[in-house]
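Practice problem: Phosphate transporter
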Amino acid sequence: MSLPFFTEIDGYTLFLLVSSLGIALSFEFVNGFHDTANAVATVIYTKSLRARTAVALSGLCNFLGVHLGGIAVAYSIVHLLPVDLLVAVNTDLGLSMVFALLVSAILWNFGTWYLGLPASSSHTLIGSILGVGLANAFREGLPLEAGVNWSKAAEVGLSLFLSPVIGFVCAGALLLLMTKYLRSSIINEAPKGDKPPPMALRAALIASGLGVSLAHGSNDGQKGVGLIMLILIGILPGAYALNLDTDAPEIGQVTYAAGQLTDYFNAHRQEINKGLADGNLFHRPNETSSPVDCDITQAVEAAQALQLRLAGIATLSELPEEARWETRTNILCLDDAAEDMQLLPGTPLADIERLQDWRTTLRGPTEYAPDWVLLAVSLALGVGTMVGWKRIVVTIGERIGKTRLTYGQGCAAQVVAMSTIGLADFAGLPVSTTHVLSSGVAGTMAAGKSGLQMRTLRSIAMAWVLTLPAAMLLGAGLFFLFAAMG
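Answer key — structure tokens:
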């Protein structure tokens, strides 16, 4: 996709926009060197690969992961802060929101990295977004629930909370299974000098370590993609509210899905009326995973408007700029009502599946990322991976357990981290590579009766607990500061 804003906006706004994109990529660069150690710590610590080789391969895998991971996690980030807020406010205030959430995330990430704490970039980013959303709602005199998509926030928060627990339990269980069935004493040995582990174990450690890097690039890279799309959609809705490269066949599919949903709603009026009477059908604002909230009547009107607007055009670029945001809103309105119908008690499984297929088709023009965004994020993350790994490797390898990390413990922690992050990608949920891996190491230490260094665990736990509220406060404070300066 071309970059139309370079010729269509004034120089001041262009400067601010380029600055915000630069800060977003800086966040992804910091994310790269902040989380690199978590992906390669056991590979380096067990002498499976030399540090420079491990870091270089990790950087490559992070780069590839951004391109292979899809965009489901990215749009979990976009939908967390209702992008309507950025469109509704003036450009300077919108950019203040963006600057505040990015700068606060970078500051906390850099600070915890400097202290050698494996804190979570995911917690940091999400806390910053929540803080900015709440601060903007307070500043504008709106209800606080209007500042954040709370259903999506709860969904994301649950994934961030559960993933370390899963890492701890599953890594410990995997180590016990390995010890029982492989029956090799080398599994429970710690690295000695510069001697690498036996070939089979070395291959497993390298493969799982690079798998963690690939999964990290996919999950964390999507957070950077989501940040940039949040900026672009919010500041330049005319250019980025829709994928303007959507062609006639895809437009036809969207129109077809809109028509099918309209027919479905009309055919189920009885169930809709009953759902209304029972209070089971419609969500209150911000209690749906969609960034908008619509009832069935609004959705039918949106579907009709959508079909009329899309009739006879070859690409979405033919839509007038002023119609693009309204088209996006129509699509999300229809999607929200379809989600309500899916959740209606008694909806047959076949209908749920049909509704999901129509929803997926509908969202195609609204959930996308231009190739240049993917390339920029993957480069920032990949280059960031090349630096900054030393501080946290020692924490992972020596300061979680009372004994040094063994080959089996490192392998079990990495396999579980790789699998957990990969499943989160599939579900479209952001998780913390840092906490999944460090909790996995702790789980193997507990299972292997190596003992745990409670001082380090307390520091990690405090970083886990404090990161979200600290990032929220930092994001809110910087937003008020930048808004006042603007």
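Discussion: The chain is about 75% helix and 0% strand. Students who identified this feature from the tokens alone can consider the problem solved.
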